[in-house]
Amino acid sequence: MKHSTLIEKTIVFVKETLADAEGGHDWFHTQRVFNNALLIANGEKADSLIVGLGALLHDIADSKFYDGDETIGPKIARTFLESVEAEETVITHVENIIKHISFKGGNEKQEFSSKELDIVQDADRLDAIGAIGVARAFNYGGFKNRSLYNPDIKPNLHMNREEYKKSTTPTINHFYEKLLLLKDRMNTKTGKQIAQQRHQFMEEYLKQFYREWNGEPI
């Protein structure tokens, strides 16, 4: 099967699967990650098919919506890719991207690495910061019925993986526990360049948020 045909079939599958997904993890999120991944891949020596499939399938079953089960996404991706007769080496690589792409909190060492994972991971992290990142954070916070901000609940920067997954703190805390950390965790030169501007936007956003929260003059 031609690479372009495999990508097209995957796009159709992902659109159908994520038709009713939460707004921050829907098809449009996947599409943005796909586009960002292709942009970053232009300056990297990487397998474009792996990058495309990894980006398209990275959130096919986000564990946040499956009681923390991180095995479902890779299984769904494998079943689909087998159904369209993708090569086993491709399937295994895409599975590993899905298994290892997410920010887990803490400082756990990543067990799998590849240039393609680096690219897709950067593309996914870029969509978590900047203007869209802010929108997605509050969208998910609302979805989970979390408060916007509570000055009495301080961010916890020392959570382990399980604590991070189970955290129910206000959305503003998420900026300090994840979003503001991503700039320094980008893998590629292009990813780092784009992240810098989006990081600055979030810092300005937080300054404005606190001014408005405290009733300070603008």
Structure, described:
With 218 residues, the protein is an all-alpha fold. The protein has helices at 3-17, 27-41, 48-57, 72-83, 88-100, 115-126, 130-143, 161-166, 171-177, 189-213. The longest helix has 25 residues, at 189-213. It is globular, with a radius of gyration of 18 Å. The mean pLDDT is 91.
Q: How does the SSE layout of this entry go?
A:
Layout: H1 3-17, H2 27-41, H3 48-57, H4 72-83, H5 88-100, H6 115-126, H7 130-143, H8 161-166, H9 171-177, H10 189-213
Helix pairs in contact: 1-3, 2-3, 2-6, 3-5, 3-6, 4-5, 6-10
Question: Which keywords apply here?
Answer:
single chain; 218 residues; mainly alpha; 59% helix; 0% strand; globular
* Class inferred from helices and paired strands: mainly alpha
Largest sheet: none
Number of helices: 10
Give the helices and strands as they follow along the chain: HHHHHHHHHH
Shape: globular
State which percent range the strand residues make up.
under 5%
Residues in helix, %: 55-70%
Low-confidence stretches: none
Distance between the termini: 58 Å
Radius of gyration over all CA atoms, rounded: 18 Å
> What is the average per-residue confidence, as pLDDT, rounded to a whole number?
91
The total strand number stands at: 0
